Amino acid sequence: MISLEKICRSFTVGDEKVHALRDIDLRVSDGEYISIMGPSGSGKSTLLNMIGLLDRPDSGTYRIGDEDVTLLSDRRQAEVRCHRIGFIFQFFHLVSRMTASENIELPMILAGMEPKQRRGKVEEAVEAFGLADRASHRPDQLSGGQRQRVAIARATVMQPEILLADEPTGNLDSTSGMDVINILERLNGDGITLIMVTHDHSLGRRATRQLTMVDGRIERDTVPSLS
Amino acid sequence: MISLEKICRSFTVGDEKVHALRDIDLRVSDGEYISIMGPSGSGKSTLLNMIGLLDRPDSGTYRIGDEDVTLLSDRRQAEVRCHRIGFIFQFFHLVSRMTASENIELPMILAGMEPKQRRGKVEEAVEAFGLADRASHRPDQLSGGQRQRVAIARATVMQPEILLADEPTGNLDSTSGMDVINILERLNGDGITLIMVTHDHSLGRRATRQLTMVDGRIERDTVPSLS
Ligand SMILES: Nc1ncnc2c1ncn2[C@@H]1O[C@H](COP(=O)(O)OP(=O)(O)OP(=O)(O)O)[C@@H](O)[C@H]1O
Ligand SMILES: Nc1ncnc2c1ncn2[C@@H]1O[C@H](COP(=O)(O)OP(=O)(O)OP(=O)(O)O)[C@@H](O)[C@H]1O
Ligand SMILES: [Mg+2]
Ligand SMILES: [Mg+2]
């Protein structure tokens, strides 16, 4: 159970203040499948970063379970991120000096997993995302969509409790995109909470609960009856 | 008139060779509107980089008009790029220490345009792409879609002869995306040659000529009769 109450976040540029998140109230039950859509600049990535503990709100509370994570130290927040949250970034943030395999393996190394177990999981992920013949390429030796798939593999390889996906199919053809969505939905079927930001309406409509953001607020929050 | 003949390009990774472009033959008439689609990793960005003189083929010839540009020096190629080609990169490549306005202005400074004339064009572009209240933000202070629009504004502001767009709407909601497509198609209507890589079939279908790449080759090259 994730709970955001009266979350506000603004950025200062020169003497101007950008209100990226305005009084966000949001409750997410374990295992929900939520899509977030809305115009460019409406605050979707900022909201996802907040949920992913990559950013702190200016005001408001954010609880995971009954723990107020806004009160945690940076170090404690990093632990929660490492063990409970998987994040697929809009612009991937891969480690440029590491290969695709090494990038995918990184969360497991950070979590202290055994080398043998890690290797098995990396091979599984590389297969699942069609990266078998690109596994030893570094990001600059990969196409845009290949990098995106590495980012997705990295975020999902440890089957985190909460999976946050920011435009996961933006650089993928429809076939690769559907392969990705099928994997994400299968993980959700296994109980993982899936929150996906997307500009693709055909994808957003697949979620059991659909949010629309406009100008820093959640303007719509619907559970379509025919899904 | 752009003409590629038997263009080949491969990359070496370790002792493995990736054949990114295999015997590409392509003729493009002035003012054509071409879309390039195909699976992730099929060579679309590599082909566009080749046409944009950002990369050289391993073999084959590439002519713009009757000039064999593969024979030009790096410096001469840079001049052609600067004056004749506009490029919208799949991952933008904005200058991180410059504001949105400064990024858009850069090609005009490089082309030696007068400050007064530049300013007018920047303001026009900022308006056209809905960036008026983000003009003095730097890229890290912009959303993904806002960065994409800056990249598009920069590439189009000098109305180049040839406009190359790699996934120009990948990070945009449908409204912003259509605004962009309308601007690109209007430029094409003014005579600019437009070559667009896209994963969005609804966009690809709007082009008067549609190419499909698979595994380094052009597998289809069609002019739909009902367009
Ligand atoms: N610098 C490089 N070194 C090694 N291999 C590369 C390099 N650049 C691209 N490749 C490989 O060449 C192939 C074509 O890459 P390209 O970026 O052109 O694909 P693409 O069609 O644009 O894909 P996407 O739709 O995912 O953006 C890919 O399989 C990629 O792994
Ligand atoms: N570090 C920052 N400094 C200043 N303004 C920022 C910063 N990050 C984001 N913004 C602004 O906050 C607003 C929300 O940004 P955000 O990245 O959350 O939008 P988004 O909904 O993800 O957009 P897109 O669909 O284009 O990715 C935007 O108007 C953006 O300009
Ligand atoms: Mg975003
Ligand atoms: Mg590409």
Overall description:
2 copies of one chain form a homodimer. Chain A has helices at residues 44-51, 74-84, 100-110, 115-128, 144-156, 174-189, 201-204, and strands spanning 2-13, 16-28, 33-37, 59-64, 67-68, 85-88, 162-166, 193-197, 209-214, 217-222. A 6-stranded mixed beta sheet of chain A has the order 6-7-8-3-9-10, with helices on both faces. The first copy, chain A, has a 4-stranded antiparallel beta sheet with strand order 2-1-4-5, with helices on one face. The mean pLDDT of chain A is 96. In chain A, 34% of the residues lie in helices and 28% in strands. The two termini of chain A are 22 Å apart. Chain A is α/β, with parallel strands linked by helices and 227 residues long. Chain A is built from 7 helices and 10 strands. Chain A is globular and about 45 Å long. In chain A, α3 packs across α4, α3 (100-110) runs parallel beside α5 (144-156) and α5 (144-156) packs parallel to α6. The interface between A and B is medium-sized, with 33 and 34 residues. The structure holds adenosine-5'-triphosphate (2 copies) and magnesium ion (MG) (2 copies). One adenosine-5'-triphosphate sits between chains A (11, 13, 18, 20, 38, 40-46, 90) and B (134, 137, 140-146, 171).
